[in-house]
Design brief:
Blueprint (H helix, E strand, L loop, with lengths): L7 H10 L13 H7 L12 H13 L9 E4 L10 E2 L6 E5 L15 H6 L3 E4 H7 L10 E5 L12 E4 L3 E3 L3 E5 L6 H11 L2 H7 L14
Parallel strand pairs: 3-7
Antiparallel strand pairs: 1-8, 2-4, 3-4, 5-6, 5-8
Keywords: Plasmid
Length: 218
Amino acid sequence: MIQSSDNIVKEITKDLKDNKDNVYQGIELNINQIKKLSAIQKSIIEFKSNEEFNLIRKMFNSFSVLNEAYIDFKEGLHLIKYKALFKEYSSENFIFLYQGSNICQFNSRFFQNKDAKESSKLLWIAKEYLKKLLNENDQHQTERILYRKIASNTNERTMISTFSPKNCYCVNSIYINCEKVPISIFKKLFIISVFNSLAFDFIIRRFVDSNATKSCLY
């Protein structure tokens, strides 16, 4: 364990600055660069090379960082807490609840896929119960953005996002967008397109371990 009195960190840093060959390889980051790349979490991103660092820095300098004022998200209904309210069959007054495994990129009907049917259940909830659980900014009568919460930076794709049809909601393995004021369908489609892009996936992998939490977006 490195102690505060050890000089090893200073030696490694000096060697890197002097371009000396040694067993330690790294990239020098200052506080301002860390804040620029991770404004909220202020976490240090892992880079495989200087080329990768320069590419990501260029991407951050070219576009505005996403923020909650532009689009906000929340988790769906807690799967354990509200378990007694969920049903595994449909009825006239029931609302379909999406789970993470029910969606794929640009595909809100992935649950019809044979592999998806075998790996997950389909859930519904009575409309009267759902209405009691949701606030006025979080209703199910309009189309919403969904993205899968459970993710990994080693999966083929880390971000999985799609468009929810009207009269549907989700459980907490999915994030769904909130709307204090109505958001146009064009803006929602644009955001989904960005989320599912290779460029966005390339960046978000640096922030995701096993869950694509909301804080990873901002």
